[in-house]
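#lab-general

N.A. 3:47 PM
ok so I finally got the sequence cleaned up, no stray characters, all 706 residues accounted for. can someone with queue access submit it? mine expired

B.Y. 3:52 PM
send it over

N.A. 3:53 PM
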Amino acid sequence: MKESDELSSRWQNWLASNDRGWRLVVGFICVICLALFLHFREVRLEVLELNGLAPHYTVAQIDFEFPDYEATIILKQEATKDIGNIYQIDDKQIREVRNDLENSLIHNQGWREAAPSSTFEEMYKAADEMETLLIEARFTDARTLQKIREINLSDVSYYDYIPPEVEQPLDLPSEFWSRLGQQIAMEHAFHQDAIDYMIGAFREKRWVLLQDTALERSLRSQVSHTVPEKITKIYAGTRIVDQGERVTSRHLAMMQSMKQAISESRKIWDPLTILASLLLALIFTAISALYFRISQPTFIRSLQQISLFVCIVLLTLLFAKLTEYALLKSTSNVIEAIRYPIVAPFATILICILLSPRTALFAATFLSIILSVSLAVDHSRFLILNLVTSIVVIIATRSLRKRKEVFGVCMKSWLSAIPVLYAYVLSEGHLGSYALLTDIGASFVFLMATAVLVVGLLPALETLFGVLTDMTLMEYMDPNNELLRRLAMEVPGTYQHCLVLGHLAESCAQSIGANSLLCRVATLYHDIGKINNPQFYTENQQGAVNIHQLLTPLESAQVIISHVTDGEAIAKKAHLPQAFIDIIREHHGTTLVYYFYRKQLELKGGRPDEVDEKQFRYPGPKPRSKESAIVMICDTVEAASRSMEEINEGTLTEMVDRLVSEKAEDGQFDNCQLTFEELGKVKRTLVKSLLLTHHVRVKYPKKEKL
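B.Y. 4:20 PM
back already:
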């Protein structure tokens, strides 16, 4: 825990350093990331819907080649036409003839005279071989045989013969039997007289031929796979699809190939292309820095604010790139219906809440332009939609006080998007369309997702960059907060003082445009150090013995002063925001605890050289913000007003002028940048507020008994 606090402290100190070198480093990081975003951008082309009518004609932007699937299918169909009918002998008939021949060999011994050199076993094997060859035999035309050879298949079992009629017994040609006899003689060591006997026995039969459709399909499939894919070249300027033409898969293939060719032509790894992206990013960053230097000099000098701004911009670019990737890579019809992603309001809400509406307006314009030229979207419509919704977000975010109100802001932004989307439909010559409904639904999803992301990221960004938003301030106003409950229970007088002081400080801050909510909430905690020693403070003694009568003036002063250091320690232990801690430390500045200093001086006989004034001064530092200075003034004036006997505008004005002048002469306002004009407004507001606080009431008479 201690290491974590130390690391957090170092980080906050680094952010508060405002070192120019580190600001340049943050700017360099911004340039690199922006260059990567601009460099690796997707190519945008007209989106065509399969079987739909093309709304515009499309022309090839570059020479490219594409796989022509339709032409390939035609080539395959033509190639498979070379495969003719293939026939085979009825295998059932072959087995019947084989069985008859076997019986003849057993019961009729005439084969011994026809084949005197052969044995029964040899004749039996020759019959088996004939049966096998006849079953394997296929008959087809010469073109089919040539195609079989072209695809490197064996044609041993194929014979060039087409039967004049099918499924009717017929005599097979003599060339077939001659090749069959030669094939048996080459493969087996049978006697020639045995081969001749078997050929003659099978040849005298009339055979039934059947069409082998399974083999035909198999051959056609193999021939189809051997046909290479047809690649068609399209030259730049060629019309790909005409307006009103029915979109086919061939058109989509051409569009996809053209997109790929354009991407390859960009040469993203070419040094000049990389240099161009870096130069563009540098130009955008330099223009932004120049704008902030002229219009918001305090912003450009703050390392904290610059780092936060760059962080939000980079998160938005990442969000946009992930959205684009999901839209381009997804095959879902739902995602494909999203035409205009709304991304810029994400950054606009965060910057408006964490920095300022003025900075948010610049970011909205800057990001809308960058995203519209970099993402694969309709540039002009994306730009208008994101800019309009972002401006509405800025207007609606100004009064944001609770986190759940972020959803209300996004709903207002969504309502502003609807007329913009309807204007797009009207510009296309329609009074309504299904696309309008999908666009409205998609914009709602994007803005609700934006609300969820903003609510989730806000606490992390607030903690990381030490930013205090109005929403967080409202949470610290909750009376159930542990410190406020302790303050109310243990030091009720101080708690009431804090409540009154909060009202005064808020009014004064509003009069000069300072952070009024911060003043109101911080004053609730500015005296939490009094919890340690509540009885030493007048507002908590409630008529009891004044304990300071038992202490020396120096001891009393040290106890009073200690509530600042004690409050700082309690605030750090409770992890209060740094802005609260600063006000706790600075609300007394380095002022003198004059009451006890005067008593110490009286004890020393009025000799100032014998009294160390530093021991009676608060440790400081002096107020470094307008809010701290306002709390200091209000704290001093409110305490002094309680001891006034006569309260009217004149006496209050005199008292306020005197006390503020004393603080100014003591140099307490040297570091807070309060102008004389603002100081005058604060004093006038204080007088008015105190008059209202100490208003006179009518005295009610006692009720007499009748």
